[in-house]
Amino acid sequence: MDHLNLDMRADDRLVIIGPSGSGKSSLLRVMMGLESIQGGTISFQGKSYIDGNARNHGKPLDVRLQTQVGMVFQHYTLFPHLSVLSNLILAPMKVHGLSKVQATEKARLFLARLGLESKLNAYPSQLSGGQKQRVAIARALMLEPKLMLFDEVTSALDPEMVTEVQNVMMQLAEEKMAMIIVTHDMHFARNIASRVVFCANGKVVEQGPPAQIFTQPKEPRTREFLEKVLHLD
């Protein structure tokens, strides 16, 4: 991304749209500390989080802050050799020092909330795509993040499974969870976003409320993109 300047409130749902290769997923990977930046800074929770000019080459400066950012990937990234329960309790025990009993109780609550309590002892290979993605969301929520990142989490799912995952994300939105969402689903983007950011060629072209972006985009490049994906008049 080049000359990117974004800010968000604690209850924002920032949805990033744009053509492939525009840097959307890279932004989320930077926020998670999976990719470094060569310049610029990111603040989180009012503290310096990432500094592109620091000696650590733009990696997160504070591991404690990093654990407050949760991410769900397109391809689940569940540990295939661990049960659903073990996938969920691993990080809270290591990061937050929870006992196995405490972590298990917490996992049961999250799985029940997402309609997956019966899958507690199942393995990822025994789950549908929608179930895997809901388990991945539950696993991220186990660390009680202040910000959730979703990277094309429904693009690999069958249409029926897309709805299950999007319903969970809408529930999080209703609970005022701060989220940054990368998606190609414009209908979902319009429904969940408090603000839409359109990126192209590594730059932010336009941003604004979903009603404005989707019906009256100001920039020609935004309109061109939306005409292709939404068939605007």
Q: Output the CATH class name of the domain at 13-78 and 146-230.
A: Alpha Beta
What value does the Rg take, in angstroms? 18 Å
Order of helices and strands: EHEEHEHHHEHEHEEHH
In DSSP terms (H or I, runs of 4 or more residues), the helix count works out at: 9
**How much is the average pLDDT?**
88
CATH homologous superfamily caption of the domain at 13-78 and 146-230: P-loop containing nucleotide triphosphate hydrolases
Largest sheet: 6 strands, mixed
* CATH topology title of the domain at 13-78 and 146-230: Rossmann fold
Q: Given the C-alpha coordinates, what overall shape results?
A: globular
Strand order of the largest sheet: 4-5-6-1-7-8
User: Which class of secondary structure composition applies to the elements?
Assistant: alpha/beta
CATH architecture of the domain at 13-78 and 146-230: 3-Layer(aba) Sandwich
How much of the sequence lies in strands comes to 15-25%
Protein name: Amino acid ABC transporter ATP-binding protein
InterPro entries: AAA+_ATPase, ABC_ATPase_HisP-typ, ABC_transporter-like_ATP-bd, ABC_transporter-like_CS, MetN_ABC_transporter-like
Subcellular location: Cell inner membrane
GO molecular function, one term: ATP binding
